Amino acid sequence: MEHDITTLTARLLAHRWLPRTDAQVKRALVDETFRHELEHRLAQVGLTLLDNPFAAHVAVGLKEDMLDAVFGGRDYQASTMGLTRDEIALLIVIWALIILPKRERQLGRRQRDDDGQNDMFGQEKPITHGEEVSGAISEASLLADFGSQLGGKTKVRNFALGKLARLGFIERRNNMIHEGPLLDVLLDYRVLADRIVNGTLADVLAAAGHSVPSLDEETEEDEPADSSAPDHTEDA
After folding, report:
1. In the chain, what is the straight-line distance between the N-terminal and C-terminal CA atoms, in Å?
2. Which of 138, 183, 200, 234 is the residue whose CA sits 20 to 30 A from 5?
3. Where are any strands of DSSP class E within 113-205?
4. pTM listed for this prediction
């Protein structure tokens, strides 16, 4: 066990995130003793394991009591992974367009091509991850709808989307934007979903022709808090 914990800790620090399907990650998620020792190792260097049961990956982030020590006294971008306000706004728009519909499918135990009408036992299925439930959005559509509001189409296409991809929030494939390893891990669904659905961004998305799923508190499942979520997301 000692070797596996050391290896997994090193891999998490080196790669920043790992898929839930990874053998050592699976062990950390089901073996309480193994998980406790892993979290202890990470805590010794001010880090914590970020595990959202709806996300396809796990990651490491700063412990809450380390945020001031690491970011205190630094400028705005230091606590937001170097993202500007326009780039954070773009990130939140992408999160809303990909994660909100994805979560609705996950809670309903449905896949992207399934309306749930023919499955009497859907709620008994395990939560699905990956592209079976996580859709993609067109870069051209995103630029047409929001480019002018977020610094200009050229800036968004050539700089902002590239930065979000390098940070692991999104993946760009064939002019489509897909969920990246950190999109559903670092941003706290419990905080953002309510602000988006009941806030101004919902009207902005609706005006651009994008539907925003309603929140169903009766079917909502508990999710762990994300201590390293980018700050100032309300500025989006």
Report:
1. 44
2. 183
3. 137-138, 170-173, 176-179
4. 0.80
